[in-house]
Specification:
By secondary structure, the chain is of the alpha+beta class.
């Protein structure tokens, strides 16, 4: 039977319908929309391009998560597989191995992870959650899945213990009882150790919750149970009675055995450690307070902070290691959290930057009854993971190969570049490696389990993150990994803020005045531009050579004086600076004169930050070329920057905010344009303003919730940098009310009120409800006017009211003149309109190929060659010669927060309109390339990810992927080419996803294997005497004791077994349909072959042993064959 593809039918219906996905010109409200009928000019232009993308090319799935697990709670390690697991408060589990082996899985309930236990070398993991549920995870597949779950109904889980090579899990509860669970079936055994039977009958108080469970290294039939109140019970599992009991005055936090099973050590709430001997349980064999002050004989040591955990690890050739967290003296309140390592008489205190959540000592052997030989300590902090090398006396830490420091300073913005120039990664790494920290251990990272290899897609990928402290990090994101390449500190451009000095700065931004707000990078020219929360823009150029130079800065006064006009008076001041002001010698807009009122309160023409005036040494890498700062105007601080764009080919940078637009020539270091948004519409006579009707200074009042959420995108009149910055660096994860899905964006009221008005007829007398912010900028070779026959440099300007303005850039014709002659910036008078704030622009040529903005080929600005007298700029224009022919045209794609439109230029005819959403609004939109074709990707505030083909805007994908729970997601979500996207899923983690069907199909080949077949190390030979007198642990049969035949069934009301979807998910992860069956069969065959191989090896070993025994017996027989009995 032929497979029926419903999506292809939808594609056919959409393609066959002329008006599909579009609205009529009356509904769109677009200026110059033209006819949308196929018979007209628009129809003739439509039929030229055959689109290749269909809905079969798209599918959404998560790929990999980078960064430190947010709010960690638990830690586990498999000493044979050498993989590490971290549980979090949000129910997530991260499993880490060698670089490239990094897996994230999530409990559906979202309950916090209390404890993790590996089934050592079995490819499985047990997790205990705060909702009193045990889960068994299958790690033999690349995406782990739950096989079984067991929900406790009447008791709360406090501690779990799984002995090595055992299938019975001990579970302690808050009531003090101990239950036993079969790991294979996940069924509760009828064997229960009740708290009232464990303690003495004469005891009148409850011992408290179970805080520790472990079997004796000497005898597996004995279980050590630790209770919170200081009681320890040594329970004989066979006789079902307490063999001995230990009592101590202080509460117990943790217990650990000596490997011989004769002694164990406890940590207590008073900062003491007690060592107990099983032969004399009446009192501790030894009591120490490691950090307590020594007292006189007979007096108890001074109490200290609780020792939350202790580990007692023995070595064959040296003194044992005693490692514990906490226990510091109370009089040292300012000391940071610490980990103490006691080795012999030496005591080393390692201070940590963050509180310690958990730590584990990594040992060579998985057997508890052997010398442990510890080689490292894994310390899980609240915001970091470190490993300490125990093999060196100074205890250095290992260099962490994982990107655990993404959140070193809060992430404020992100950028993602796929298929970028391949040499960039090597260049950035070669510069960044010189600034790496030193002092790490010379040994390799010990968590090196799993297997990983490069997938089929190996194109270069780079992620850039901006941070609250002004730093910018470049990351290599190729092949599903993340490694930091280079770090740039923008704060080095400015003077340090002194305490009590510079009050104008603290009034704007209370802290982190260097926080990065927007970044713009041209990988081909290596020009990098960044804007900050203190209303500054810095342009960086890349150089391999160190220089010492002064930083050039410009101060721009940007104001919209329309608000101050009450009576209609014509003004004589032109909106543009004179030509003389564009010359380098005269900068009327960049002066630094401070104008203060007579009372000394009014601030005017003062920047928020002070640029260093002295020569600055700039190391190789990105070096500041120009700093542009907006200044205070009439006592009002500058508004935050809402849009940013730079063109290396034109040598121009443009940025805007809710006040207006600024265009700067960064080659000549001059301001070309500084104009209020309303003035950009007056294109009839650029040097004479028309009288305006009187109007009131209205303030736009938006919905408080929406304004607080989207303050980074659309500021209003009353907004200041301080209020918007609070949402910029907000790291809390408080859920957002459902009203967000139904609320409108902050400028929606103003846009809808003014949307139907004619901008061309009454542009000088419009009565607006809010300032019109510049929300999008785009440099491109295009047609600036309707009658143009050739392309020319243009700047597209999009506003928060949905208006698009085309600004013509008149550049000098030659290279020599470009450095001396002024650049003319002239609004062309062309307007396009959309519904909602404009988000992005892009252009396609007549064949439907995406046009890239022109750029300048990179050349080291500090490179000096004596033989090279003249240097010419090499420009790449990215358009064919035919595009300049008369009668040619191009497509311009414009997307707003409500709709997308495709215009044909120079006719400015609207060819396609697609109303993307009516009840919500688009947060992020980008024109991307996938499978050599362009498409429009959108992320909506209601959580939908939508893909549309270009230029027809046919819907290809619409998936309800991620509801917007906080503004961090909206601020950091970004699309890129090749079907890739990312966002900051938590304050410490980056989540990458793909919307490519091909990548979803190949995702299994790109992910690492968590489990690799490794033979379990053999136990050491115990010797004849130890085997004879070492206890009965070798003959202990748990199956006989805990099985249903002996122990009976547990009460059904005590716990509920829940089958997991592991097998189904495993098939989905491997492939679909028949491929899934084949994969499952292949895995089963592999496991069967592995078991047969192990059996064959063991059989061969037994045969070898038998042959050796036979040989020795024969030799012994020959030796004593002829001897008499009295000769022995």
């Amino acid at each position: 039977m032929k497979k029926f593809n419903f999506r292809k039918v939808l594609d056919g219906l959409t393609a066959s319908s002329p008006g599909s996905g579009s609205s009529s010109s009356s509904n769109s409200g677009g200026v110059g929309s033209g006819s949308l009928h196929p018979g007209g000019t628009a129809g003739a232009l439509r039929e030229e391009i055959q689109e290749s993308l269909t809905s079969d090319y798209f599918q959404i799935c998560k790929t990999v998560r980078h960064g430190f697990p947010y709010q960690p709670t638990a830690l586990a390690f498999d000493p044979v597989q050498k993989i590490l697991a971290i549980g979090t408060r949000t129910g997530a589990i991260r499993i880490l191995g060698r670089p490239g082996v990094d897996c994230h899985c999530q409990h559906e309930s979202g309950a916090a992870v209390l404890q993790l236990q590996f089934l050592i070398n079995e490819g499985a993991l047990v997790s205990a959650s705060s909702d009193d549920t045990l889960h068994l995870w299958n790690l033999r597949q690349k995406r782990p899945a739950i096989l079984h779950s067991l929900k406790f109904n009447r008791e709360r889980i406090t501690y779990c213990h799984l002995p090595f090579q055992s299938k019975w899990l001990y579970v302690g509860t808050e009531r003090g009882n101990t239950h036993i669970v079969n790991i294979e079936s996940f069924i509760l055994s009828g064997y229960v150790i009740m708290w009232n039977k464990a303690i003495e009958l004469s005891t009148k108080t409850h011992p408290g919750p179970v805080v520790h469970l472990s079997d004796s290294p000497r005898d597996e039939g004995k279980l050590l149970i630790g209770y919170e109140n200081g009681t320890v019970v040594f329970w004989d599992l066979k006789s079902k009675r307490a063999e001995l009991r230990v009592y101590y005055d202080e509460a117990i936090h943790s217990i650990d055995w000596h490997h011989e099973g004769k002694q164990f050590m406890c940590s207590h709430s008073d900062g003491s450690l007690t060592l107990w001997n099983l032969k004399s349980p009446s009192r501790p064999f030894q009591t120490t307070v490691p950090h307590g002050k020594s007292q006189r004989e007979g007096r108890k040591s001074e109490p200290c902070k609780p020792i939350l955990k202790v580990e007692y690890k023995t070595c064959r050739n040296s003194e044992p290691f005693i490692i514990f967290s906490g226990g510091l003296s109370y009089d040292k309140a300012c000391r940071r959290p610490s980990l103490t390592i006691m080795h012999g008489k030496a005591i080393t205190v390692l201070e940590m930057d963050h509180p310690i959540v958990e730590f584990l000592t990594l040992c060579d052997t998985p057997y508890p009854n052997e010398f442990q030989e510890p080689y490292a300590v894994a310390v899980l902090l609240e915001k970091d993971l470190i490993l300490v090398d125990l093999t060196q006396t100074n205890f250095p830490i290992f260099e962490n190969p994982y990107p655990m420091d993404i959140h070193e300073s809060p992430v404020t913005c992100t950028a993602y570049f796929a298929d970028c120039p391949p040499d960039l990664i090597l260049v950035l790494y070669s510069i960044g490696v010189k600034h790496k920290k030193q002092g790490y251990s010379n040994k390799e990272w010990p968590v090196n389990g799993g297997a990983w290899n490069l997938g089929a897609q190996t194109y270069p990928e780079i992620i850039i993150t901006g941070h609250a402290d002004g730093s910018i990090k470049f990351w290599d994101a190729s092949a599903m990994t993340l490694q930091m390449l280079y770090k740039l500190k923008t704060s080095k451009v400015f003077e340090k803020q002194k305490v009590g000095d510079g009050k104008q700065t603290c009034e704007i931004v209370e802290e982190d005045p260097f926080a990065v707000q927007m970044i713009y990078w041209c990988p081909e020219s290596r020009i990098f531009c960044v804007s900050g929360v203190s209303a500054y823009v810095i342009i960086y150029k890349f150089s391999r050579h160190e220089i010492t130079t002064e930083i050039v800065s410009l101060e721009v006064r940007l104001q919209c004086d329309v608000e101050d006009i009450i009576t209609p008076e014509p003004e004589t001041s032109p909106p543009f600076p004179d030509l003389s002001s564009q010359l380098p010698s005269s900068r009327s807009l960049s002066g630094s004169t401070n104008t203060v009122s007579s009372e000394g309160v009014m601030k005017d023409s003062i920047p928020c930050l002070s640029v260093k005036a002295r020569p600055v040494r700039m190391p190789p890498g990105y070096q500041a070329d120009l700093v542009i700062q907006l200044v205070w105007v009439d006592g009002e601080p500058p508004q935050q920057i809402t849009s940013l764009a730079i063109s290396s080919a034109y040598g121009i940078v443009a940025f805007g905010n809710c006040t207006g637009l600024v265009v700067v020539d960064f080659i000549q270091k001059t301001v070309l344009l500084s104009m209020g948004t309303i003035d950009l519409y007056r294109s009839s006579d650029l040097y004479q303003r028309q009288p305006r009707s009187p109007r009131k200074n209205k303030q736009f009042i938006a919905d408080n919730f929406c304004m607080r959420g989207l303050s980074n995108f659309y500021p209003d009149l009353t907004k200041r940098i301080r209020t918007s910055y609070q949402s910029l660096t907000e790291l809390n994860d408080s859920p957002v009310p459902l009203e967000l899905e139904r609320c409108k964006s902050p400028t929606s009221e103003a846009r809808e009120n003014s949307y139907n008005r004619s901008r061309s007829s009454s542009i000088s007398s419009i009565d607006k409800d809010s300032k019109e912010a510049v929300t999008a900028l785009y440099f491109m070779e295009s047609f600036a006017r309707k009658n143009d026959s050739t392309v020319s440099p243009c700047l597209f300007v999009g506003t928060s009211l949905g208006m698009v303005l085309l600004i013509s850039l008149n550049l000098p014709p030659s290279d020599e003149q470009r450095f001396t002659e002024p650049v003319m910036v002239l609004p062309s008078g062309a307007f396009l309109s959309l519904k909602g704030a404009v988000l992005t622009f892009s252009c396609m040529d007549r064949t439907g190929s995406l046009m890239q903005p022109p750029y300048e080929v990179w050349r080291d600005p500090n490179y000096t060659d004596e033989n090279e007298k003249t240097w010419k700029r090499k420009l790449v224009m990215n358009y064919s010669t035919s595009s300049q022919e008369t009668g040619d045209h191009q497509y311009t794609i414009i997307c707003s927060e409500k709709q997308a439109k495709v215009f044909s230029l120079p006719s400015q005819t609207c060819l396609y309109v697609h109303n993307i959403t009516e009840t919500s609004f688009i947060l992020q939109a980008e024109v991307v390339v996938m499978c050599s074709s362009a498409c429009l990707a959108c992320f909506c505030a209601n959580g939908h990810i939508m893909i549309m083909s270009l230029p027809s805007l046919r819907p290809m994908l619409d998936v309800n992927y991620l509801p917007l729970t906080d503004m961090r997601i909206a601020r950091t979500f970004c699309f890129t080419n090749e079907g890739q996207a990312l966002y900051l899923v938590s304050p410490t983690e980056i989540q990458r996803l793909t919307y490519s069907q091909e990548m979803c199909d190949n995702i299994q080949d790109m992910l690492g294997d968590l489990f690799t077949p490794i033979e379990t190390p053999e136990a050491q030979n115990r010797g004849f005497l130890k085997g004879l007198f070492g206890g009965s642990g070798q003959t202990f049969d748990r199956e006989e004791l805990f099985g249903e035949a002996t122990a009976g069934k547990a009460s059904r009301s005590l716990a509920q077994h829940i089958p997991g979807p592991g097998s189904i998910e495993g098939m989905k992860g491997a492939a679909g349909g028949v491929m899934g069956e084949l994969t499952r069969a292949r895995i089963a065959l592999d496991e069967r072959g592995q078991r047969l191989g192990e059996l064959e090896e063991k059989t061969a070993g037994m045969m070898t042993s038998a042959e050796a025994f036979s040989k020795h017996a024969h030799e012994l027989m020959l030796k004593y064959k002829d001897k008499k009995w009295y000769q022995f």
